[in-house]
Every structure is written in C-alpha cells, then in structure tokens.
C-alpha cells in the first residue's frame, strides 16, 4: 500500500504522522506543493514489454501531465529483481539532492520511496504501482529503491539532458529509515 510518513527533520526516530489513505496522502502533500495522484493501471505490464508499448498504454494521462507541466521529454526507467548492479544503482539516488526542474514520476509497476525535505519536515512517500508524484523544482529530496529493487516508472523532464542532480552536501539521507 502507498504510504506517507512525516518526520521532523531533527527526529528520525519518531514519526509525526503515518497514513496509507490515498486521499490523506494527497491532501498532506498538496499542502506543501507536491502533487500525488493514483491512476488506473489495469493489466500488469511484463518485464519484456517494450518501453514504447508502456508509454502507449498511458498516452492519455501522459499527454495531460505534459500539457499541464510543459514537460518535453518522457522516458521509462525499469529495474527487475536480482539486478547485479542494484547496490550501485541504489546509491545513485540515495543522497539529498535537488533538480532545477520538477521531478515527476509515475509508477507503472513496483515501488520506491521518495523522501522530501521541505521546511523542517521529512515527507517519506512510498510510491507503488499506479502512483504519480510530482515534486517541485529545487525541493531537496532523496530516493530509495531498496536492496533488491523492482520498479518501472515513467519520468517526465523539461530539459533535454534528462536526469541532472545537484547535491545539497548533507548526510541527512543516512539518518532516516529506508526500504529493506
Ligand atoms: C523513480 S525514478 C528514479 C529516481 C529519480 O529519478 C530521482 O531523481 C530520485 O530522486
Ligand atoms: Fe531526484
Ligand atoms: Ni493531518
């Protein structure tokens, strides 16, 4: 189940709030400028499915998000269980960073944990199949895919270079709970 856990950024051991109610997750995140949606995912996608077929399946929702946010580029990132490079791939996103564009991700399959550092709070959003999260540009955050990742996500970009991150040079990501 998708889940929101909120912490004070100085207190990683005691959550201020925990909810698996999608409406509450949406409301709480909307208060800090983050959009959370749940889309119908229908028939499960398979690991052999071409990325172009995945994009075609969601073309109407993708077109709406692109039109609303002006995102020029859309791609698919997919990781299957048992990936020999899992540890290295996990590290790539496991430090607090920002992007100078919105981070917009739709989970077609699997899950991942977005950790957003907004004001003096940490919002941990466990995104699962069917969830869209849209994090405003320049929001400090990190992302955990877990030790044996499995997810397929559609990513929206508004620059042609794709994924570019700036580190905040903070070690805060090491202080908060992660996925198994
Ligand atoms: C779920 S897509 C991979 C994560 C990512 O792109 C990112 O920037 C995490 O912070
Ligand atoms: Fe990011
Ligand atoms: Ni509340």
TrEMBL record:
It is an enzyme of class 1 (oxidoreductase). Pfam families: ARD. GO terms for biological process: L-methionine salvage from methylthioadenosine; L-methionine salvage from S-adenosylmethionine. Fe(2+) binds at residues 97, 99, 103, 141. Ni(2+) binds at residues 97, 99, 103, 141. The record marks 105 as: Important to generate the dianion. The record marks 96 as: May play a role in metal incorporation in vivo. The record marks 102 as: May play a role in transmitting local conformational changes. Binds 1 nickel ion per monomer. Binds 1 Fe(2+) cation per monomer. Its cofactor is Ni(2+); Fe(2+). Belongs to the acireductone dioxygenase (ARD) family. Catalyzes 2 different reactions between oxygene and the acireductone 1,2-dihydroxy-3-keto-5-methylthiopentene (DHK-MTPene) depending upon the metal bound in the active site. Fe-containing acireductone dioxygenase (Fe-ARD) produces formate and 2-keto-4-methylthiobutyrate (KMTB), the alpha-ketoacid precursor of methionine in the methionine recycle pathway. Ni-containing acireductone dioxygenase (Ni-ARD) produces methylthiopropionate, carbon monoxide and formate, and does not lie on the methionine recycle pathway. This is Acireductone dioxygenase. It comes from Pseudoalteromonas caenipelagi. The lineage of its organism: Bacteria, Pseudomonadati, Pseudomonadota, Gammaproteobacteria, Alteromonadales. The gene is mtnD.
């Amino acid at each position: 189940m998708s889940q929101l856990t909120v912490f004070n950024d100085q207190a990683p051991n005691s959550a201020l709030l925990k909810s698996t109610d999608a409406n509450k997750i949406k409301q709480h995140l909307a208060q800090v400028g983050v959009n959370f949606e749940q889309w119908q995912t229908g028939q499960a996608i398979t690991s052999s499915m071409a990325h172009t077929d995945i994009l075609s399946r969601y073309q109407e929702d993708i077109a709406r998000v692109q039109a609303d946010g002006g995102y020029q580029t859309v791609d698919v990132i997919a990781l299957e269980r048992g990936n020999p490079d899992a540890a290295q791939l996990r590290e790539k996103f496991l430090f607090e960073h920002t992007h100078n564009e919105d981070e917009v991700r739709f989970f077609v399959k699997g899950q991942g944990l977005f950790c957003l550092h907004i004001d003096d709070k940490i919002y941990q959003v466990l995104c699962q199949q069917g969830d869209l999260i849209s994090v405003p540009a320049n929001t400090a955050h990190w992302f955990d895919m877990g030790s044996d990742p499995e997810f397929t996500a559609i990513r929206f970009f508004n620059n042609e270079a794709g994924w570019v991150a700036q580190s905040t040079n903070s070690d805060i990501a090491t202080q908060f709970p992660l996925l198994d």
